[in-house]
Amino acid sequence: MSDLQGDVQAAIDELVEKGVERGVQVAVYLRGEPVAEAVAGVADPATGREVTPETPFYNYSVGKGATSTVLHVLAERGLIGYDTPIAEVWPEFAAHGKDRATVRMALNHTVGVPGIPLTTTAEDLCDWDEMCAAIAAAEPWWEPGSGIGYHAYSFGYIVGEIVRRVTGKKISEVLRDEVAAPLGVADELYFGVPADQRHRLAVLEDAPSPEPPPGLPAELPDLPMFRAAPMSVMPTAAFGNRPDILAADIPAGGKMTARAMARLYSALMTEVDGVRLISPERLREVSAISAEGVDAVFGNPMRWGLGYGIGHPGAFADPGPTTFGVPGAGGSSAYADTKTGLAFALTKNVLSTDFTTATTISDLVRRTIG
Prior knowledge:
The protein is about 30% helix and about 15% strand.
């Protein structure tokens, strides 16, 4: 292996120097061992505070990988099964014909509740009981299990409430006790960030908006994605910097370091400092294609395992994908590759509209590791 650490460091330094990025973290593990950990830039331009390996970033849907992992750790202990009806542990979820909806359907985005009420405010998202009640009472967009569509916000509340009903604890507590603390990253992996830790977070900023292509209609088309959540809670820097949002358990996303996510994904595949989160048999099940098709919300082709997207970014046509993970709005990403034993995570605080930075650094790593 060439100087992977140096190559990654040089690549992210260049991105910061060119002004493409403000602050970046990259962490790479190979078969349970760290092989690269690089940081560049500043976490807070107002103060000049630099990014360190311990700086948590709000990474939006990258946190779904942690949410799913919590549930798999409980399944490993026999506390819940993937084919258990959700209503068996959460009776209210049975409303409007959702009584046959299973934990598996929640994990692979086929459960049929991809939206949240269009009246939802940022304050509402911080009210766990209110959100869970709204989702439980929702009429499904399709018969559970018969369609597929990205459950952007509802995924976190559904999986999180299953965890709470099974354990009696908030998912943030289970994440800390069963995943983050054993992996030595209890202060680097959160849903809600404690008040005394919030000063450590990177400050988000929006990338300059690209010019819209010519010929777009003046009014937005009636796309399903605009029925899934109000525009006021779409992932922006202002939203992600709000103290109440940072404090709240919203496990559709998470606040974490690249190192924490790389360790998590590595520990799904093998031992990391003596900790392995799930068995090889369960790894095969959660990282295999569980559902695939055209996403009913966003219109793109999708492949889901149990809580993780399947396939390397930009390689949807790959007939035998071995990567699984979840990228996040704004351009951060984390995943594992069961073929090579690679675990990769990149976090950043400039919210871009694409994944160019993550893909560029990931491709560099994959070329080096082979």
